[in-house]
Amino acid sequence: MDTASSKPADLVLPPPIEQPSTADQNAPSLIPRLPLSLLQELWRTADAETCGLSLDELSIVLTAVGKRVNHGLPPGATPDAAQKAAFFRSLHLSELALAHACALGREIAWENFLSRYRSALVHAAVSITGSATLGNDLADSLYAELYGLRQTAGERRSPLASYSGRGSLLGWLRTTLVQRWRDHHRRTHRETPLDNFDSPAPAPTPIPSNLEQLTAGVAHTLRGLAAEDRFLLSAYYLDRQTLLQIAQTLAVHEATISRRIKRLADNLRKQLIENLISSGFSKAAAEEALGADPRDIEINLSTLLQTSQTSTFSKKTAPTAAGDTL
C-alpha cells in the first residue's frame, strides 16, 4: 500500500515539463522510455492527456515506480519484459497519472482532483479528527501540502510525487490524513486535550498496522473456499445480484440462498481471524484489522471469487420449501 512520507522535504518535485502536442508525442525523445507500444497503451488507459501528462512524463513516473518496488517482485528477483508489462497494467493508472500531474502543478489536473476528491477528503478528515472544525482545517492544510506550496531551494515539493498507484488514491489520501493528524498530536497533545474537540463525529475506521499480512490472510481465506461458496459470494457481493436472481439461477428457494450467504459470511470472518492469528496477529489485532477500508487491501476479489462451477449445487426442478438447504 502507498503511504506518503511524513517529511515532505524528502520529496523533490521536478520542474514542470511543457506538454507536447499530440503530433510531437510520436517524435523521438531524449528521455528514456518504456517500449513505445506499451507506453502508448498505458498512456491511453491512464487517460493521461486529460490531466496534462505527456508520454515522456508518464514513462518517467512508471519507470521510477517499477524500480522502487522491483515491479512487484521479491527483492533480488529480475523481472522480464512480460512481468514488467503486467505490473504496469495492474496499477491504478488513471489515478497515478492524475496524482503526478497534480504534483507537476498542472491546473487541469488540480481541477479534476478537487472535483473527485475534495468532498471525500473533508468527510474522512472530520471522521479522523472527531471534529467538524478540525476536520476542515486538516483537509485544508493537506491541500496546501499536496499542491506543493512548501519550497526548498526554490523547488516545489508535493507528497503526491510519492504515490505509486499500487493502491487506490483515495486510500492513500486517507492514510496521509491519518499520518498528518498523528504528527499534529505529537506536537500538540500536551496543549490540547482530546476531550475538548467540538462537534463529535464517528470514530475513524481503524487502519491495520500490517496491511500486507491482512491482504495475504484475506487471499488465503478466499482461496480455501469451495467453488460453490465462491460463486455465491461473487454473485451477491460483486455482481450485486438479488437473492431471487441467484435462487432462480440455481433452482432453489430464495430463503435457502439467504441462509447460505449468512452462514458463509459468518464462517468467513471466523476463518479470516484464525488465519490472521496464525500469521502472528493477536486476537484483538485480528478483529481490529477486519475494520480496514476494503479499498486499502490490494486484492483482486473478482479473480479470487470468480468461478463458473455451479454444477456442484443440488439443482431442483422448481424452488422448494424454505427448509431446504444447499
Sum this structure up briefly.
The chain is mostly helical and 326 residues long. It folds into two domains: 1-203, no CATH class; 211-305, Arc Repressor Mutant, subunit A (Orthogonal Bundle), CATH 1.10.10. The chain contains 13 helices and two strands.
Any chance you could write out the topology, listing elements then pairs?
Layout: H1 36-45, H2 55-68, H3 81-90, H4 93-103, H5 107-129, H6 132-147, E1 151-152, E2 155-156, H7 169-188, H8 211-223, H9 227-238, H10 243-250, H11 254-278, H12 283-289, H13 301-305
Helix pairs in contact: 4-5, 5-6, 5-7, 8-11, 9-11, 10-11
Element pattern in H and E: HHHHHHEEHHHHHHH
- Rg from alpha-carbon coordinates: 24 Å
Low-confidence stretches: 5-30, 190-209, 307-326
- DSSP strand content: under 5%
Overall form: globular
Largest sheet: 2 strands, antiparallel
From the N-terminal CA to the C-terminal CA, the straight-line distance is 38 Å
What's the mean pLDDT score? Answer: 74
Strand runs, count: 2
Which structural class should the secondary elements be placed in? Answer: mainly alpha
Task: Describe the overall structure.
The protein has 326 residues and is mostly helical. It folds into two domains: 1-203, no CATH class; 211-305, Orthogonal Bundle (Arc Repressor Mutant, subunit A), CATH 1.10.10. Helices cover 53% and strands 1% of the residues. It is built from 13 helices and two strands; from the N terminus they run ααααααββααααααα. Strands 1-2 form a two-stranded antiparallel sheet. β1 and β2 (155-156) form a beta hairpin. α5 (107-129) packs across α7 and α8 crosses α11. The longest helix is centred in the last third of the chain and has 25 residues, at 254-278. The relative contact order is 0.11. The model is unreliable at 5-30, 190-209 and 307-326 (pLDDT under 50).
